[in-house]
Every structure is written in C-alpha cells, then in structure tokens.
C-alpha cells in the first residue's frame, strides 16, 4: 500500500482532478441550460434541444480530459466502474485500484462542492439540483436496466477500440460521442450516470439519495459483463493496457503491454514507480 501511494500519488490526484473538473462543467452546463432564469432557457424553449446541447458539452469535456496530458498520465478512468473492470481484467494492481476509486469519489464530490460555492443558489434550484442523476418517470427498474445497458455498450466499445492499433487513437472520441448520445437520448430514463462517483458527488450536495443503489450496482455490473464478454470472445491476452489514450511520453503504472499490440508502432512505454522496479527484473 505504501509503495503504491508513494510512487503513484500523482495518478491518484489526477483522477480526482479529472472527475472534479467534469462535475464542475456538468453543474455549469445544467445551470446555463436548465435554470429558469437563464437566457438560454428563454431562447431555447425545447428541453430536448437543451439536453442535447448539454450532451455535446459533456461529451466534448470528456474528450478534452481524456486526451489532455493529465488524462494520458492517469488513463482517464474517472469512474470506479471502469477501474474495477480493469482490475478484474488484471490490468490494474489492487492498491492502485483502491486509491483510484477513493480519488474518484473525492473528486466527484469536490467538483460539485466547488460549483456550489461559486454558483450558490443557482445550482441548488430544483431544475438544476446539483446536476443530480435520478430515475425518470418510468421508475427505478427501467433506470437500472438503462444504466446497465449503456455501461455495457460503453465498456465494450472501449475494449474493442483501445485494443486495436487501427482504432486505439479514437477511443476517447468515441467514448465522448457516446456520452453526448446517452445524455441526449437516455437521460430521461436514469439521468445518465454510468458512474457511482459522479452520482454520489451530486447526491451528497443535493441531499438526495433516492435510488442510489441503482448507480452503485448497474454501472459496475454492466462494465464487468462487457469485460467478461470481451474475454470470452477474444481472450484476456488481447487486453494490452487500460488507458483511454496511451501516449509514449507518459509513464504507465498499469500492467502495460501496449508495445505488444499487433500493428502498434509506438515505442515501449516508460514504466512508473513500483512498475519500473518490477520491469527492471524482467
């Protein structure tokens, strides 16, 4: 534990910062496009159009974070369900996974907290509600099924694209595109979370914990099922790393085999910390 914390604390801090930034943008976007006093609400009467704009903004935010130098350093999981799935696939060490998950929860709550300090009553308005994700009118059962389905598709896409040299560079773009699509189409069913840390971050500040279990069970199970199906289809040996965007000039703390990917022209990735110590004995 101490070795992991000593060597990899920058990656943990980055994960908190990335999700925190995502949540700040989420809160600002919902205030601008949902608060009844907003000029955008007066100009764009159709709530479906406003939700689509929020989707585009959040999808673009995800893409920027994934391809940023910070995102390429930590892998830009930003989601406990993602980290746990890669732990199950053997790409993340147990202590790294534990600290990643803790950092993601802290980051999500901190991001909403910062937005609350800056936006004050605007983010507390019922039409904004700290950008909380809650089941829609069709109820909890539909929300759970929807969350399970969208996370299964997202993780399947990440595994398929990131483990092929021809598509790996576009993984973040496709992930961001799915975020935009899901917010536009699926959000009325479950609020479109896919992320326990994202949901809890809003719930803590909104003091609204309704159906929290949906977002703590469906996303991890959906992603784990996607991981299992991928292994059944192509084998665990075809998971080369777990970064959303892999840059050769950034160290990698994971069980990284990106240089072994067929057709991969990237030079060997520099290991980091205790991973580097292990690599020196190979």
Question: How helical, in percent, are the residues?
Answer: 55-70%
Which structural class fits the helix and strand makeup?
A: mainly alpha
H and E string = HHHHHHHHHHHHH
Largest sheet: none
Please name the CATH architecture.
Answer: Up-down Bundle
Radius of gyration: 19 Å
How much of the sequence is in beta strands? under 5%
Alpha carbon gap, first and last residue? 22 Å
The CATH class is identified as Mainly Alpha
If helices are DSSP runs of H or I spanning 4 or more residues, what is the number of helices? 13
Summed up, the domain count is 1
What is the name of the CATH superfamily?
Answer: Glycerol uptake facilitator protein
Task: Considering the chains and any ligands shown, give keywords for the structure.
282 residues, mainly alpha, Glycerol uptake facilitator protein, 13 helices, 0% strand, disordered C terminus
Describe the structure.
- With 282 residues, the chain is mainly alpha-helical.
- The chain has one domain (2-273): Glycerol uptake facilitator protein, CATH 1.20.1080.10.
- The protein is 66% helix and 0% strand.
- It has 13 helices and no strands.
- It has helices spanning 2-34, 39-43, 47-67, 69-74, 80-88, 94-119, 121-124, 140-162, 171-185, 187-190, 196-206, 212-234, 274-279.
- Helix 1 runs parallel beside helix 6 (94-119) and helix 8 (140-162) packs antiparallel against helix 9 (171-185).
- The longest helix has 33 residues, at 2-34.
- The radius of gyration is 19 Å and the shape is globular.
- The two termini are 22 Å apart.
- 50% of the residues are buried.
- Residues 276-282 have low confidence and may be disordered.
């Amino acid at each position: 534990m101490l070795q992991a914390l000593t060597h990899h604390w920058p990656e943990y801090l980055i994960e908190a910062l990335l999700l925190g930034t995502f949540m700040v943008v989420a809160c600002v976007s919902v205030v601008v496009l949902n608060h009844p006093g907003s000029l955008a609400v007066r100009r764009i009467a159709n709530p479906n159009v406003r939700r689509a704009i929020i989707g585009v903004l959040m999808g673009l935010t995800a893409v920027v974070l994934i391809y940023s130098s910070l995102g390429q350093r930590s892998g830009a999981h930003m989601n406990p369900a993602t980290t746990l799935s890669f732990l199950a696939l053997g790409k993340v060490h147990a202590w790294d996974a534990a600290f990643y998950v803790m950092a993601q929860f802290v980051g999500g709550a901190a991001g909403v907290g910062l937005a609350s300090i800056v936006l004050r009553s605007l983010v507390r308005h019922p039409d904004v509600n700290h950008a909380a994700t809650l089941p829609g009118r069709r109820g909890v059962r539909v929300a759970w099924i929807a969350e399970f389905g969208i996370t299964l598709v997202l993780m399947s896409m990440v595994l398929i694209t990131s483990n092929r040299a021809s598509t790996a560079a576009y993984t973040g773009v496709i992930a961001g595109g799915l975020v935009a699509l899901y917010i536009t189409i699926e959000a009325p069913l479950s609020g479109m979370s896919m992320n326990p840390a994202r949901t809890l971050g809003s719930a803590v500040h909104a003091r609204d914990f309704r159906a929290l279990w949906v977002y703590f069970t469906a996303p991890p199970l959906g992603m784990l099922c996607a991981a299992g199906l991928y292994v059944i289809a192509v084998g665990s040996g075809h998971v080369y790393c777990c970064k959303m965007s892999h840059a050769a000039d950034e160290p990698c703390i994971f069980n990284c085999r990106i240089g072994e990917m067929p057709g991969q022209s990237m030079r060997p990735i520099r290991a980091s910390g205790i991973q580097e110590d292990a690599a020196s004995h190979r």
